[in-house]
Fold these 4 entries.
Entry 1:
Amino acid sequence: MIRDITIGQYYQTESVIHRMDPRFKIIATMVFIISIFIFTNPYIYIVASVFLGICIALSRVPFKFMVRGLKSVVMLILLTVIFNMFFIQGEPLFHIWKITISKEGVETAAYMAVRLIILIIGSSIMTLTTTPNQLTDGLESVMKPLKLFRVPVHEIAMMMSIALRFIPILMEETDKIIKAQTARGASFEDKNMIKRVKSLVPVLVPLFVSAFRRASDLAMAMEARCYRGGDGRTKMKPLKYHRVDFVGYVVIIIYFACIIFTGIYAHYLPFGEGL
Amino acid sequence: MSIVETKKLAYEYIRRDAEGNVEGITRAVDDVTMNIHQGEFVAILGANGSGKSTLAKHLNAIFYPTEGSVFVDGKDTKDESKLWDIRRTAGMVFQNPDNQIIGQVVEEDVGFGPENMGVPTKEIWERVEESLRIIDMLPFRKMSPMKLSGGQKQRVSIAGVLAMHPKCIILDEPTAMLDPLGRKEVIRAVTALNQVEKITIILITHYMEEVIGADRVIVMDKGQIVMSGTPKEVFSQIELLKELRLDVPDVTMLAYKLRQSGLPIPRGILTQEELISEIEKLKVAK
């Protein structure tokens, strides 16, 4: 049962977006995120949402999977909304008890909420259509310029992919340890929160010990297979741009141009300078 | 031609207490001189703590000798400039299959070694396919290693070493964590590698059944070589093996007991077939 867990939230299906190069998807996502933060006016969000809608349709991932990503950040969005609403001063709209809610506050809160929702759905398109493996490969390649600043790019990518490989193994191990400790009388279902956290100590200690042992074994195995860092290494599956990716780059440039155009000329439209 | 050669090899583990003071020195390998020829299948036997794994790690330049020296394909393992050459010539397979598979897909793991060596992409694919075919794992190439059995995982590890085109493969207790079926599977694969691909095999184990097919058996105890010879020669000395806390195969034991109780059965019986034919001979003689 635990063997079948999937890591990340990759959704397996056949689509144009699935076929695209991970490097393109990472860069496109970054451009998209920047695009929703440079201007504040409602038309930007309409353009971004339309673009997002087209991407979702193209990705063939059911919409409910995108919404699932939102669930985990609902609290964050709520907090942002509340803080913005209560603490931004300006033209008073109405009073609740001693707190004044201002027009500017509601406006900023609404903008922030829409931005966050678009941002999260936008980035979940990337994670839903790219395997964790491709994602690390893509990151390694996109971050390559950082090597000039002595950032160990290859090593970070290697660590990420090893972590991904060992997550299921360590999960299995945790399962085993919990069973072993239960067999000795340990209880993991106390109602008291503090007791429950404390009961995890006898699980975490052996888990850490074994993780370190595994790490040392793995390091030895990697060295035995001539691993010596990223220099002089070739790739079995090098990333290659295809025609779709070039089309993708053109589309994302056009999209960004549209955003800038809308941002600059929006004040000629009704509500263009804010609601 | 010798592929692996050790000369008066010794290795000491230094145990330290919490402050880093030397508590004691354990001589794990002591004065080992051996010579393994190209194409040979050598098994190194020994009980726990006999120093066999420490010895194995010297043959791949993971450990460096405290005294004496090790030569792999004529290159001294102490010579750092030859390190990667040595590791490529003498590949190593370890005990725990989970802790030596790096890739998330079988074929990616097999390609890891060649990637590190800087082999061009196209050739990596050829090597991966070739190695998986030799080891009979080609149908599993797209699978996650998590979904394989222990024996299959070890075969993937062997394929991973094979893709580096080594002259010699050292297997450090590759079957210690496997069930009997997986053990047979791995030993069969290793034997085939030796016979078909003519790759030198150094198999380290404490299962006696696994060494029957070897050309030569080396028995270690307390860091030293105590016996060396063909499996037949080694298994003829049951008393000595018992003293070294090693079990002999059941058939050999049975033959030994029969001989003790007076039946004229020769020493060093290794397989069931051999014992059966000896007993048949007795019947005819009667």
Entry 2:
Amino acid sequence: MPQNIIDVDHLSIRFNLGNIKVDNLKEFTIRRIKHELTFQEFLALKDVDLHVQRGEAWGLIGTNGSGKSTLLKAITGILKPYKGTIKVRGRIAPMIELGAGFDQELTARENIFLNGAVLGYSRKFMEEHFDEIVEFAELQRFLDSPIKNYSSGMKARLGFAVATMVAPEILICDEVLSVGDASFRKRCNARMERMLSGGTTLLYVSHDINSVVKLCDHVLWLDHGEVVMQGDPSVVCSAYLERQDKVYSYARKKKEDREIVESTKKFDYLVVGAGLFGSVFADQAKKAGKSAVVIDRRDHIGGNIYTERIDGIDVHRYGAHIFHTSDARIWRYINRYCKFNRFVNSPVARTGSELYNLPFNMNTFSKMWGVFTPEEAQAKIDEQKSEYIAGRLEERRKAGEHILMPDELEALAAARAAEAAAAAGTDAAAGAGAATADLLKAAGLPDNAIVTDEGIFIPQNLEEQAIALVGTDIYEKLVKHYTEKQWGRPCSELPAFIIRRLPLRFTYDNNYFNDPWQGIPVGGYTQIIESMLSGVPVLTGMDYKTFAAKYPGKFRKVIYTGPIDEYFDYQFGHLQYRTVRFETERLLKPNFQGNAVVNYTGPEVPWTRIIEHKWFEYGKDLEGQDIPTTVISREYSEEWKPGMEPYYPVNDDANSKLYEKYLELAKEKKNVTFAGRLGTYSYYNMDQVILQAWKLAKKELKTHDGAMKEAVAESE
Amino acid sequence: MGNKWKVRFHTFHKYSALLQELVKRDIKLKYRRSVLGYLWSVLNPLLIMIVLTVVFSSMFQKNIENYPVYLLTGRVLFDFMRNATQSGLKSVTNNAALLKKTYIPKYIFTLSKATSTMVDTVFSLGAFFIVMIATRTTFHWTLVYLPVIILQVYVFSLGVSFLLAALQVMFHDMEYIYHAIITAWMYMTPLFYPLENLPNLLQLIIKSVNPMYYYVASFRDITLAGNMPGIRLIIGGWLWGFAALAIGVFVFQKKKDQFILYL
């Protein structure tokens, strides 16, 4: 296989923004003294790969500031890589910006030699090609007048003629052919095409997409320094143009929204957080004829359900979101905004060299033990459970612990009841024949106590609890390491209450959710939020405190869906969360794991799962075409620290108490309503979020959306 | 290591044509801009010399025999250094447009400025010789040493230029700071006054830390006194030259990859 002429691997280019702004000694000294020298880093290119074969013509497209010219400069050798490598195996002729290589005072004749020298040609070589250049540039008559008298078109001609006098191995062309008259452009194009067919490799930057499609056989699309897409010119360019249209209409809405907010208009509601809750509420407010303005600290709308499109794949940036509900009205409601597909969440779990279906069902059991019927599976699980419990009880007995026997339970319950009755002065009512659960409760035992013939077993930690529920095999292979990765501690050191139930399903059904309605919006979640927020002014990149300080008296009431502790400046301390971190990677292959969600339940890898986003939509783009690349996100559980992205509230005593304290403060804030996952410190599925937002809307707005009203009334 | 130098040498060789073109451009533009052309480059120092002679000669007549030549020896060398460093200072920033678009070794521009100033200085020596003839000064054989002095000033100026060019890229106000420095420097160099007029301490300071003193004093030795410069002046001149070059090249090399971020 022939070597590539250009190999760019994992290239990152870094600029130091802080330094760029300080370019004089006076300011530098002053800031030094005041300790204000900032070293803000900015990556102009992030992990860019480009492999060009000899003779290919590559077009580079992207908006201004996307990194196109930076990439060309790096290839030319002007910029040094911060990370990654660049290998160029050929002579590069940069097509210099008009007149940049010329001295205005010199004549054309002198400039030809100067410019040739700039390109690294010797004087002798230039003399040999002199006539040819003059002829192509058609400047015979003006050879000896200073170039400052030339028109820009004449300069362009001269520049092009010098740069292309010999066919270079690599020609770099940065937006130069947009000047000059039609006939010259035609000749330039003809010359370029001749060079291309003669084996010259071309790197071409232009905003003129038509010329890119015409000249190039490959296109690389850059955005904010990252590769969005590369490949066939027509495919990449049309995706780019589509995005441009969208960006343009976004930009227009953004500008209009800003104008509305900055006008003297006052709003009924300020909705803090453009996530699902805030958007549903704002939509309802709009429909009820109330005015609302929505702000979000992030630079996009949608909160955690935000999806962004990469290579035609809707990437769930903040983790997998699968919509499921058992409420037909919520299902109908959400389907108004978008078409949902028939996605069914059927994750698989990998551990060591084995793979099992989730949730724990007959497929799992069958593969694990070679069993076929539910009875066999049940027997296997029961056997493992009771063996384990018997062993643990034996150990405890040996350690001198008293183990309560089942026949003692009734007596204990009666005794406790009598004690309680005596204390309360009423008759004991606990009679014989009560259910075991009631007896346990009456006897004052924790509700996870398990009654066996060998004695009553009270799991002391998560490990004991889990094995008592599902047996040793399932625990070891599918629960233990996964839970340890999630919590960062051995299961034997985790409290038992984290797992109260581990549902086992004795059918061959891999559907994770029990809800009758389930699916993924075709084209991602962001469009749902967009349509909910159409007609509602939205400011992104704006946090509550800034907004409230900038526009006091702009709004009557606040619906605050941000973290409640942050609102009160953490005066009682931080509420804790369990958080996850995603490492998202774009891969140049069509299929990575064959399923949207794969859990990693073994100790071999540090991540808890990998999401392959394309399988939420069956690997097709909006036109129904197969997508040649894929995007995966590795999910890691992390210990949460203040400042990290909060995901799951921790429902232990300490945090619940802390939340209660904040709730007291919140009650005093008459014109602020705390809502949503972060505002009420509770985890909600998406359908629950919608219901919560409806409830608030009903209370606040007295709206009469038929389905909604009914659903809310029922839930109350 | 050897390979690195090979690559460097190869790059220099490849761009030596550019260096020539740049020097040619500077010379051409300088003499094309005016009607008098080359004559101007001779006339200019002559006129200034005449003015200064008229003003100062009575003041220093006691100490200095041949004031016009005394004055011109100082001015020729100091102007050489000043022009070279002031144009060298801007050599990188002025070519920002080009450096941003294509790969050219950045030192080529600084090198070309020092070189073209040297060529210009050699041209303007015409004025100097005219004055020598006019004042009936003896042409001593020691004048053959002049090229060495010019080379010393060239090496020194080149070093200072590299340092200044690098600083100018990062701090755009370097230009003004340097302007103040060079004015002070000029007065601290015995160009139009005799060194002996200064207090002893100041004399000692100038003799030891002003590099330009070494070159000007050498030049006066070979023209006015007619003897070779003392060993102290020769060695000191080279030491200053190479020290400046070493520092300049070091700073320039260290910072050159960052230039693009500031241009």
Entry 3:
Amino acid sequence: MTQRANGPDSRDIRPQQGVDTKDIREIVARRGDERGGLIAVLQDIQARYGYLPQEGLKEVAEGTGRSLVDVYGVATFYRSFSLTPRGKHLICVCLGTACHVRGAPRILEQFQRELGVGVGGTTPDGEFTLETVNCLGACALGPVVVVDGKYFSNVAMPGVKGILREARSGSTRLKEPAAQASAR
Amino acid sequence: MREKLNSIDHFEALQDRLVSEWDRDVPTIVIPAGTCGRAAGADELIHATQQEITSRKLDGRIRLRITGCHGLCEMEPCVLIEPEGTIYPKIDPTEMARIVEAVARGEVLEDLLSQDPETGARIQKQKDLPFLKKQVRTILGRNEMLDPMRIEDYVRSGGYSAMAKVLARGAPAAVVEDVKASGLRGRGGAGFPTGRKWELLAKQPSDGGKFLVCNADEGDPGAYMDRSVLEGNPHSIVEGMIIGAYGTGATEGVIYVRNEYPLAVEHADIALQQARELGLLGEHILGTDFCFDISLVRGAGAFVCGEETALIRSIEGKIGEPRQRPPFPVEKGIDNKPTAINNVETWANIPIIIAQGAQQFAEIGTANNSGTKVFSLVGKIRNTGLVEVPMGTTIREIVHDIGGGPAGNARIKAVQTGGPSGGCIPAEMFDLPIDYDSLVEAGSIMGSGGMIVMDEDTCMVDVARYFMNFLKDESCGKCFTCRKGTQRMYEILDDIAKGSGTLEQLDLLEELAHVVKDTAMCGLGQTAPNPVLSTLRYFRDEYVEHIRKRRCPAGVCKELITYSINENCVGCQACVRACPVGAVKGREKEQHSIDAEKCIKCGLCRNVCKFEAVDVT
Amino acid sequence: MPEIGLTINGLPVTVDEGTTLLEAVRFLGWPIPTLCYMDGLSPYGACRLCVVEIGEGAEARLVSSCTYPAQEGLKVRTASERVLRARRMTLELLLASCPQSKTIQDLAAAHGVRQQRFKQEYEDCILCGRCVRMCEEQMMAKAIGFRNRGENRSIGTPFDIKSDVCRLCGACMYVCPTCQLRCTYNEPERAICGACANLTPPCIDKEQFNDMMCYMSPCVACEIEKEG
């Protein structure tokens, strides 16, 4: 039953740049037995690389003994995982109900226009990735935008340019990304 | 490293010592620094306060306490001065020097106090704030008393006494009886009696172990009370779970926190470590034969994981796909072992029930709905924040008396409760008492407690479309009718919002909504049509207006509105510069105009205009 | 094995513990349409066609009979107005998404669904997951699985590249309920969809046909190969 395929379906996936299999093995060894094991492993890998590299997921499948289908299924099911590298700055627009009724969709459109990318997209220069989140629980401050972990509250459309400028200058890097606890 | 406590006496001695060493009269500056507080600038306040205290050599004479969120979100960043209870709202770090000085002298800074919106009178004490007057803060009230990162603060303010009381009493069944007698119902949504759930768990065979779970996957957008409790008072959850484990014979606990709450994750993690150090968690708790430990699991961003069977799958490290019940989690949960799941607020109530006694707890609220409930009051409301009221309080009291009414000039027309599973309750029904049963009757649900206020500038078709957009992405996708049903409902709502809907589609929408409700397997799918059904029930004329007149009365739906410039225009050119597509034309000091062909209706011109010269019709 | 007494369409019956409602109902001869259910695979409850009504009064609700266990005293109705209404809407949704499937067309016709009022889509897959369960449970391969969630859910291999563990057995295609005609192409009178003509036979890339567990019977590709 476990006959291995040969010929055309033997994959040729080269390790992507910077993925250290030893690193991933170490994460699997540390986290694998915890409750929520696979998810915790993937969170740590994402914290390490900013996304889930393909080679890394294969390594996780081997390390945890779960099939690649399972690992890939989990990695694509949960929203906080990304399978593509993100830009230098992560812009996260909150689309919770409170932010929505206070005009978040237009803020998002403004970011899309300014950056020229859609939700989940990264600018060609690799500077920005635009994402949305379904409520950060900071509803009193809505519309809320989180850039690299810095919260911008009561964001209005004219303020979008300024936020991008601030992000480019690097001053949003004061804190760790709060939108992803995994980065801690 | 803390010294491990080996007996109940040992614990009580520690508590006595902490209480007696505490000098109530030393002035204390309390700065709430939950997620919103920090976002609003609490970190800078803390930094400034520390500097001022040190530079004035006031160490020991003035204390600084950094707490979690108090729920006064509208006032953040704020400063509370103890023991007087003086509150300064929206404080700039540069004011801290004055405040520290005043605290040292025992003075009050009049000009920094908040003002009554009607009379303009200054309000000094926190308890006199109109926002707090009608509230009963049994749960939230403790947040200001303690630094969530210091277990000693919690113990000193009476924490873990309920646990010690239960362990000393030594009758697990009595714990379940107490919770049953309190009438506590699950605060996570459907309101299942907590005592009954525990009783079922206690009856399960315990050979292979049993689980208790704290569901902190607060996924409803617009709800954040669980976050504030876990951030601001994590030990109350830990204590509640230990008591629950003692009563039900559970051997392992899990706190499942959503990943979007990094501070809650951090505080819960610290709380667990500190409780272990003190011997309140782990093997032989306080020297007894009772063993129980709790692990922390982070979610990874999936609304459906709030559903119990999906949450269990997620804890097992799998895709959060719900499964058929029966078997219920209480029979087969994590790793097929008996599991009881309660949400954060439910757990926070447990130590209170034990400490107060079940009878006293049951006296608050109404007959079938005892205790208090925390709501997050957000949206188009003047006083945004966390509201804790006895069950049975009317929506009007919350929205108007506590919330202070509308934020702007537009009239409030509805509140949305229960998140994407709930519905919109129209203003005509604001005398409805808030409890599990009344809300269901009105076509909504309690949910975890989000309360989003909507005014006349909110379009109900747009709200329904918003929730369907949310749900079609958050549905796990397993049940065909939920997956396709939410997509098709969105499609129809989108047509209506764009002015291309028909009345036949409206009937189809309603028919489909009922079938999705009927045929979906889990709670997400069964409640997914609620936002559509409740808005159709109370705001059908808005739908009809979109269809018949191709008009959005709230001025929200882009395809149905036009922007124009009126005679207020002074010709300042701000909108000309702002327009991303060059649709605004006009010379300096002459009234501008908008080219409707080019206009993409982004609203930027209206946003930058300082003269109310841009109309939406 | 302990027995359980329940009522199906007013008729008291007893079944073995662990029997699902679908098994009980079908054993007694009442028809229930299914798409995601298949003998030999674990029940999944994805297509929602097999819903039946249980309970009474305000407590009455619909459940998928393939996943719901028979319980003592349960009152089951397999063709109440509520059940039929739900089934018709489900079929309408199916028709709106996968109009080319003969199976769905037949089911819709049999239930009196003569129109569909949604915007027409042309999808092939209803994500019933038969192929996923076949691959895992019967072929022990786990080469394909569910990916993403909600409206973006799909079935396929990780990263959309050929899987190392796939043996190209074809079982996934064999069990597919919406493209059944792929597998009946040897009966020209029933074969109208022509999907098979567009498919790459599973064995085409293989060097050794004899080692494969091919489900595309009576595919004769390998026979031709041997002769040649």
Entry 4:
Amino acid sequence: MEQPMLRGQEVKFRYEPDSPTWAVDGVSLDVQKGEFVAVLGANGCGKSTLAKHFNAILLPETGTVLVEGMDTRIEEKLYDIRQRVGMVFQNPDNQIVATVVEEDVAFALENLGVPTEEMRGRVDDAMRMAGIYEKREKAPHKLSGGQKQRVAIAGVIAMRPDCLVLDEATAMLDPRGREAVMQTIRRLNREFGISVVAITHYMEEAAQADRVLVMSGGRIVMEGTPKQVFSQTARVRSYRLDVPQAAELRDELVKAGLPLPEGIITPNECAEALFALLREPGSCQ
Amino acid sequence: MLSDITIGQHFPGDSVVHRCDPRLKIIVTIAYIVVLFMAANPLGIALSLGLLALLYGVAKIPYRLILKSLKPILPVILFTSILNLFFITGEGTPLFHWWIFTIYPAGVRYAVLMSVRVVALIAGTSLLTYTTSPIVLTDAIESLLRPFAKLHLPVHELAMMMTIALRFIPTLIDETQKIMNAQKARGAKLDNGKFTERIQALIPILIPLFISAFRRADELAMAMECRCYHGGEGRTRLKNLKFTKTDLLCGVVAALLLGCVLATRLLVPGL
């Protein structure tokens, strides 16, 4: 059987060695190659801490994290692991190192010692994949938030990683920037088969994933396809999370007595279900 | 107001001076400074001024920028020339004598030469920053200092620090403006009051600025680690500086011209 992209086994981590509470409290999970996984959870549930385990920024206190079979604790594999699992953080300003877009995209390759002749092509490819090729000679501080975040993504995918970990990468962006970044990420996932682990607060983003994990108190408490997770509106709310607006609307309509099917999470599905309901003679008076 | 601040102002252009290898420009600038102080005769200084005017002309940098760059050091120039004027004693009859003040012709000569030299110095080094972008300049400094890495001088680290500083100047200026507005909204008086009051008013701006800068540094360090940063060892570059034939030609021309200036000192010492 093929190795999973990421595998966590009973991962436990706390920030202080004698703290009574664990930031990550026994998490086991697999992320397959090419999969798009969204991790949801209220503030302080340990989702960012968990994300930092995926490329050996943090090491588990007990349990293991395997990246394509490599244990993150093995120091010789550190750069291999970081090259395979690229990480994008929340604040685009604090991830961009260089004063010109293309130089920043090249930063990781410069660190890895990629020869100059090869670098040019990889940098151009990465900028095209992230849709910022036209901005290559601009200074980062002249770009919008969404563009900056795509520069950060390009800087990571220039390493040609197999997996992208997004730690609330869209949290600081305006709706338009967020949409552009999400589009880029979906494209990287579908066209280039890069696995994505997206930690997010936005239910609409999570609804686009293949699989959703809900974390609370350092543990994974719910897991399944977006449909399976978001149809349990009451349970999702109990973890201090919202559900997508479409699911919420469906819930309210069911409460009001309309026979709507389960598993409605996107606006389109909701519209179709309502349309079907309205066409059915006698269903609405 | 704050966004006007630029460090090492750069005027992009496409002249020979702009396109020249930045390493060559740094070396020529240093050589120019040396020549300026070695050829202390009026002819030599006049020639070096002419050379400078020529370079400004070729680079199409407006001459009024020289005045702008001189503005901050004008008091220094005035102060030193006044000191020179009164404290240089020479032979011959004093031009002017009153109480304890005496001015000799040698004093005047020295004061004028000294100030012209300082002006040429500033104008010359400004030309370097006017025609070279800070990023390219940083690359050039790193490349020029590389031999010293063998002596355990942290060359790569210095260059990286300069790059990061350049990268974060606009970000932090932006942030300062935001903090100032936030404090003003809470009733801070930043623009008026006595000198000591205004200094005190800076504290509530600087503390948040520092805290945020440290937080940024922390996140940046993590982001750099995620992109496999591990110091300068085994690093390659996207753009390598190339020393072309044109650069060689420019270098030779510059060496000849500076040589001529220096020669005037030896050949016609009287002037």
